[in-house]
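Q: I'm writing a short methods note and want an example of a predicted protein-small molecule complex. Could you take the sequence and the SMILES for zinc ion and return the bound structure as tokens? Please keep the output block clean; save any remarks for afterwards.
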Amino acid sequence: MRTTILLLALLGSVSTQALAADVHPVEQPLLHEITGRVSADELHSTIATLVGFGTRHTLSDTKSEKRGIGAARRWIKSRFESFSTACGGCLEVVTPSQTVTGTRVPQPTEVMDIVAIQRGTSDPDRVIVITGHLDSRVTDVMDFKHDAPGANDDGSGTAAVIEAARVLSKYKFPATLVYAALSGEEQGLYGGKVLADYAKQQRWQVETDLNNDIVGNTHGQDGGVNNTIVRIFSEGYKRALLLDVRSAARDGRSLPSAIKDDGNSFADSPSRNVARYMSALADAYLGHFAVRRVYRTDRYGRGGDQVPFLEAGYPAVRLTEADENYTRQHQDLRSEGGIPYGDTIDGVDFAYLAQVTRLNAITMASMAKAPAPPAGVDIEGAVKSDTTIKWKTASGAATYRVHWRDTTAPQWQRSYAAGDATTLTLKDVVIDDAFFGVSAVSADGFASPVAFPGDAGSFGGTTTATP
Ligand SMILES: [Zn+2]
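A: Understood, no commentary inside the block.
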């Protein structure tokens, strides 16, 4: 009992660095090297080229070599191919597409994603995805004629994807990395669905999608400047499991067994554990740069390409700058009352975008070097003074680490190295008062994100979701 009291007293005073060390137990020179290779000049050059295509609207011209989304797609494909040439063919470039019609797509239109796949050396079915959308728009979402530079929305995310591919293709990883420039976002999140469907067809075990959308502006509409924080949005209870409930109710089936309180309440998800993981990486590896975790799927009333991934049962987060400027998003190029409107390249802060890109790159590298997050996590300890946590062996894991936190705490607060065991009893830690999870650690000290008990906390895809 005394130990429990000591633990709770400590919780209030755990420093940020201590938390980062708990989630990422070994400092990795590789991750420092990767941050050093990300170049603001490369990001600038990519966005300047993208803006040069005039408009990248999903309904724009696909034949011209100079203008429209077709030219932009071919240029991105050529970038991926040039990186692949430089790494001895390490990238496979594919262009999954679907022909769609909808409210914002009046005529059947091919929505094509440009995707580079860097196969893992020993665990190629495990997949870490980065996405940004290459399409752009102006005030009228149906206007595919006028210039829509889309420098920040989402030239910034697309540039982060391309730069991550350039830097990470110089290394080899046990798991697969996927770099994807998506189309059709502004017309209805079509490109995200195209890629999520492709992932299902390929039977990828997607451990996360890092969706970068609007990640380059630092001058907010309110006049504030914020160049040291990126927001990461993550859903609460898995959307795919909630869709299960809806379809069960519609079909008159009984409630799926996955829908129960799995021990971490109804307000937590693998996506949140990816956000926590990234937050700890930023604290450990990026000076003067931090993550503001937002426990929402997206900004209020907005959506992004992470949503089709979540609906498919894959963990996914959205990265967006801390302080948005709405006069620069979805606007015709013009000046009104001395205020410039439009998404032009002078609104992108490349030093800031480089930091966001570094965070993406080290997250992908760290997750791909680490084992898979443990599956089959379970806890027991009702009406006892100790808590026992169990899990299954994870491929590539040398050791495991048990994590726990106060039920109201946003980040994991305490951890305990469990060696190569698959069960651990925490003496005098009362199960009622904390949430619990487990990470898997490779022999060279790369840790996975934390998985918590049940389907709700599992990184494995849900099997029954029918969105
Ligand atoms: Zn966007």
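A: Remarks, as requested: The chain has a mean pLDDT of 92. The longest helix spans residues 350-369.
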